[in-house]
User: Fold these one by one.
Assistant:
Number 1:
Amino acid sequence: MADETTSEKVQNWVVGLNEAIFGAAYAVCAALLAGSGLVDPNSIAWLRWGLLGFGILATVLVVVAVVVRARSAKADVKLSELILREAATERHQLLDGDLSPLLQLLAEAVYAESRDKQRELAGLVRKTVTVAASNVVAPGVAQVRANLFRRSGTKMTLDPGCFSGRGDKSSRILTKDDETYQATMAGKYRLVRKVDDPNLVYQTFLTMPVSAGTGSKGVMGVLTVDSLQEGDLTKSDIPVMRVLAAIAAAAYSCERGPRRPG
């Protein structure tokens, strides 16, 4: 029972640390959009500063709490060390090797000088988002598949080329009657730990709305990942999915055209 409690503590603390790190990365996406002139800065100012403040506050709280726990008992020292080791290895690789280049590519797309170049780079960003999702969501799981669906009217279909990972691309069309469509339009993610459908190969999936601004009008699509085994996807994967979905939303916004001077 003690081991189970320790395992739960580790997972909860890692989730908290992930939210702090990726909350700040999410704010970078919002800042890029605000600076580009593609989106009204006032409409996302609360998001940009709120997430940045949340990231800073959560990081401070995590660090302070880890120190307090480390001083309180030997078991907590081991717990803290485990948390820090996991954060240092997985998150460093993710931020430095995956998210950093992706954010740089997004910045190039946002500030491209011509409309054609902006659309070209924006499409590349979205494709790279699915590649990143299939590799960095559920680290250590080899059979993850990622798909990016684009909204068109009252349905969502796979964005051409925006697929990566295991097997074939998704052939699904999400409509108003689909639970994922409904959750996406409401601005909510879906984490299904065990799929209750014998016709599907995968056993678990996670979806994240791709949206700019608030309300259903800002929904551009949905980013999904799925895996073969129950338990492959957990709450700890939600923060990185949120950031990747925000990057995809920024890439869609780029297609509105390049920034106008003045």
Note: Residues 90 and 139 are 8 Å apart (CA to CA).
Number 2:
Amino acid sequence: MKNRKYDYIDRIPDRRDLGVNLGLALRRDLDYYTQTWRQLRPPDKKRNRWLYFEKGNFWAMPADAGLEMMEDGKAANFFSVKYSRWPGKSIVCRDSNRLSAKDAKELFREALTSEIIDEVWRKCQDLRVVACREPWDQEWLKVMIVSPSANELTFRSLTREKTYRFKHRPDKIPFSNGWMLDRSMMDADGRISQIMMERLKEALRG
């Protein structure tokens, strides 16, 4: 069945039969290019999971497999400037490994919910969070969370956009500083994905 919102140009499958794919698509309803993370549902792997939070857990995948896919995406020209949503606009990026201890703690508060669901991340001694603020209205935060020692990786979208309806209620899954969790798996601009790929490579390979 053809997706009503996305015209896919290419998809990068993972190399480990996880059912994860990194896609490059045109959002037809909003007229911009984006990169999507999706995972085919077991056991038949015929339908994509598109909800980030399911059955009491956030989506995650092996970090090294995610890096492989992003590098394959780079080789497939996913990061070409012609697919950039905001050519010439700067992307504000915060990386917990490049912040003071105080600022890193604040970033963790923004990127992780205070609920028990994220406790597994808070216990990681080598937790790294990379958060990219979208230009324009700056109402969206795209977040990569990784633990190299656990080889765990996740991507999530947070928003402050009050008119956006497909988000979790802050009293159910709370985040700090007014951020609310998008229910969907993450879509991101190619330049944001490229920043995340470079930081992920640094985290895993030095």
Note: The chain is about 20% helix and 30% strand.
